[in-house]
Amino acid sequence: MEEQEMGRVIPNPLVPEIKRSYLDYAMSVIVGRALPDARDGLKPVQRRVLYGMLGLGIRHNQAYKKSARVVGEVMGKYHPHGDASIYDTMVRLAQPWNLRYPLVDGQGNFGSVDGDGAAAMRYTEARFAELGELMLQDIDEDTVDWGPNFDESLKEPLTLPSLVPNLLVNGSTGIAVGMATNMPPHNLGEVVDALCCLIDRPEAELGELMNYLPGPDFPTGGIIMGREGIVDAYRTGRGKITVRGRCVVEEGKRRTSVVITEIPYMVNKTTLIEGIAKCVQEHSIDGVADLRDESDRQGLRIVLDLNRDGDPELVQRQLYNRTLMQSTFGVINLTLVDQRPVELGLKSMLEVFLDYRRGVVRRRTAFRLAKAQEREHIIEGLCRALDMIDEVIRIIRGAQTTEEASRGLIEQLQFSEKQAQAILDMRLQRLTGLERDKLMAEMAQLLADIARYKEILADAKVLDGVIRDELTELRHKFGDKRRTEIQLHVESTSDSYEDLMPEENIVITLSKDGYLRRSLLKDYNVQNRGGKGRRGANLHEEDQVAGMVVTTTHNDVLLFTSRGRVFAIKGHMVPETKSGKGRKVEQFISLSEGETVVEILGRFPENCSTVVLITRRGIAKRMDKSELQNLTRAGRQIMTLDDGDDIARIRCTNGLDDLFLVSSMGRGLRISEDEIRTMGRSARGVKAMKLGKDDEIISCEVIAGNSRILLVSQHGIGKITSYDEFSVHHRATGGQRAMRIGDRTGRLAVANTVFPGDEVALMTAGGNIIRLAVDSIPQLGRDAAGSILIRPENGDEVANVSLIHKEDLVQSGGFRAADPAPAPQRPVEPTLPFGDDDDDNGGLEFEDVPGAVLDAPDAGAPAGPGREPEKED
Asked: Motif (GyrA-box) spans which residues (predicted)?
């Protein structure tokens, strides 16, 4: 770089010049713009705005003046920068949600907590707030240092006298070059108490000071979570304070509402509401039916109306964790001390203010002492003049000029020059006796004041007493209650349902129209077989139950779709209702056009190693359990399906199990699972069972231990059959008869593995549920039809069954995996596509229960609609 000076070119290296210039710029920003002074807590522009308002004479008890007048005064005399920055500064000084104690009283639109800007300066008006006026109290008594303004035409104060500990009570925020400050506001009364404590006990430690000043007090209220961050900030000058908004729960006639009455400091209300609305739409906040802003001049009020199944405590936790209702205030107590940026702890900030106030009061006292002594000197001369009034009059009458009279008084009567001038300026009315008494009283008062001033200057304790008295008066006049609560015990911030609510046994049902609903398992008492069941779902007349699972509120519910995808939601997310139809499944997961949920299951057992998927057309696929780990509401593709096919059953296996496939026409096929090789998520699968016309797979069961198969037809006829009656076959065969099907029974509706001592929950398409003890259901041969287990009414039919293990309940916290047992080693027997093995059953078997016995169909009669006659065994 080169500079041309007086016709000569002087080489100047670029790097040193940039370093020097940037350092000058940085220091200018740090000292002259961005950081507050530790003594009065003001940045230069703030100080100039307040001093400019003082020059305009707009005191707190006088009329407002246009903001443009103030801005012009400040810009023209003290702050040669843009008018927008000056106006923005004045606006902030007047906003009660930004400053704990506003220093400017604004009239008009000065913005809002929503983030709205103030009206143009030509429309708004301003004057001092009473507390702001105290920032300049005694400024005309030589209390502060002065410096030239930008053009050296005027003087401006380098600091304000600041009776108010503004740095602590209002805090400050600013970004400089390479550093920033972020100081929280505090309660005025608490700050004064801490200052008085430090005056009385200069050796007081941080813990003692925090007994008086426990923490920040934000203008918007809220709750500070814990004291650890406060202690760090007060000790080192840096810390992180967690601040929450305040919520209350209001119980209305129709619904419960969560009402936000306070928000964290420096949080924009509009941004907060938008964030809450987004979370509600994305189901990050559950159970909110309506969101509205009812804030007015009386205060802030954001209302969240909850659904009937909404949990107020859960909603509050989610608000804190997922929105700006909980935020972190990073404390950086960076301020200017002797024109140098320094990070201060609490005690250091209090000491800096006290030292400054001692200097202010000392200078003010010295100023007043000088004025009092000067006045005392004048009064003493006037009193002497009254005592020798005749001589004084003679000298004045004999003088030709004022200067001659003054010289005569000085030379003849030994008055000082100031006394002589005061005598000459004295009005004749002062010669009366009453005026003489006033002068003597004034002299006595002046002598007392002079003695007091000398005492203050001579004794540091007396000086501190003056400061203490002024601070105490300030607290009595402007102190108020703390707005921000400090919660010492920090509760868990988890917003998970599991951490908030007890685990309960529930029944979750899925209707064919795609509605999910939840009810408590305890609402369904165990009944005797043949009962009608209890209403478990309030469905539309044309709607039917498509699936049911018994689980707990804390466990996952897996949703398998017709397109081979699987989703996971928590049981508690499904709304609880005793008679409502529930909530559309699309409100929980995102489905493509034409995609439906065809199966719901509880979470997989821990000892599950592989998962078997069976489609209605008899296609089977086995995949490793790891392919289904960490499922979420986002979903995952687990099987490629043929057009028109969908998933019928999902089962867990341990790698050594036998599988039992059941079709709607009463056929059963037992195969070893190793007949189906393990495949990846994108594989189609292999043929598992050969099906007849209009037949389809309704179930796939895992054979383990002492388990048996429960078979229930559409018309409520059911039985239990031992798996030992079925031999192992190869896959892609037709299997054996599992249950005799006819017009009275209807097609086979459900098939499930059961264990002794367990219970089952049967549900009809109309929504009725009945709980039965497994031991009450008759065990019959595979060729029998069974007994009446439930009596569907008015064309209703059995739609689903769920097995209720004792270990499924809350005590174990999850679903039981059946004890794996190796499949019996039997020779594989050839099987006709639709033939049966030889058996000893010559006809149908029914338990002898009144009203439950069915006549056996004639030999060779069709076993069910759309089915060819059975071949003779």
From this structure: 527-533
pLDDT confidence of residue 826: 34
Mean pLDDT computed over 825-840: 35
In Å, how far are 541, 663, 681, 789 from 764, measured between CA atoms?
13, 19, 33, 12
Any idea of the CA torsion for 711, 717, 722, 723, to the nearest 10 degrees?
Answer: -30
Q: How far is C-alpha 565 from the chain's CA centre?
A: 33
DSSP 722-767: EGGGS-B--TTB--EE-S---TTT-SEEEEEEE-TT-EEEEEETTS
Extract the tokens encoding 167: 């740095």
CA dihedral 801, 803, 809, 815 (to 10 degrees): -110
Q: 459 with 561, same domain?
A: no
In degrees and rounded to multiples of 5, residue 83 shows phi and psi of -65, -30
CB 747 within 8 A of CB 741: yes
Mark whether 472 and 507 lie in a shared domain: no
Give the domain CATH number at 138. 3.90.199.10
Distance CA 100, CA 115 (A): 17
Decide if 289 contacts 255 (C-beta within 8 A): yes
pLDDT at residue 862 is higher than 80 = no
Say yes or no to pLDDT of 682 above 90.
Answer: no
Domain residue limits at 265:
246-324
Please tell me the distance from the alpha carbon of residue 98 to that of residue 218, in angstroms, as a whole number.
9
Catalytic position from the list 25, 101, 123, 212? 123
Show the tokens assigned to 77. Answer: 């005399």
CA–CA gap between residue 486 and residue 190 (Å, rounded) = 14
Q: Is 123 one of the catalytic residues?
A: yes
What's this model's pTM, rounded to 2 decimal places?
Answer: 0.68
- Kindly provide the b/e burial profile for residues 48-67, where b requires at least 16 CB atoms within 10 angstroms of the residue's own CB: bbbbbbbebebeeeeeebbb
Spell out the residues 6+ positions from residue 483 whose beta carbon is closer than 8 angstroms to its own.
187, 217, 218, 219, 220, 221, 222, 262
Q: What is the mean pLDDT of the chain?
A: 85
Helix (H, G, I), strand (E, B) or coil at 429: helix
DSSP state of 779: B
> Count of CB atoms within 10 A of residue 628's CB?
20
Claim to verify: residue 637 and residue 679 sit in the same structural domain = yes
What the block records as the tokens of 281 is 């739409």
- What are the φ/ψ torsions at residue 648 (nearest 5 degrees)? -100, -45
Q: Which residue has the higher pLDDT, 569 or 522?
A: 569
535, 768 Cβ separation under 8 angstroms: yes
- Structure token pair of residue 708: 């048996």
